[in-house]
Amino acid sequence: MADFGICENPDCKLSYDFLILAGLFRQIDSINGMEKRKADFFHILPYLKPFTPFFQFGTQCSKCGQFLYRVTQPTADLQTESEEYIRRSKLNALLEAGYQLRAWGLLLNAA
Questions:
Q1: Cα 78 from Cα 86, distance rounded (Å)
Q2: Is 108 inside a domain boundary?
Q3: Quick check: 41 and 91 in contact, CB under 8 A?
Q4: What angle do helix axes 21-36 and 83-103 make, rounded to 10 degrees?
Q5: What's 42's DSSP letter?
Q6: What is the Rg, in whole angstroms, of the alpha carbon atoms belonging to the chain?
Q7: Which pTM was predicted?
């Protein structure tokens, strides 16, 4: 289980469903490609900082107060077109992105 969480409230500005997060995944893909080529990517890491508020420590969202999603949920038993499958897939992908940010030293628990 992650020590950080993601807000599940689709109306929250720190929601897993916020459109700006597509940029996070593009940046991570780019950096992963650079890592595979053994190229220097550390100059790109500061551009990931704006995404760190989406990864929150504690139990409740700092913006809306809703409980945070902290555990990867299974999707195998769900229809791939279902809303629940899409919701879980997005949340699970964001948790994985958080682990990547942590590995690069960008996600630190202030507590």
A1: 9
A2: no
A3: no
A4: 50
A5: T
A6: 14
A7: 0.87
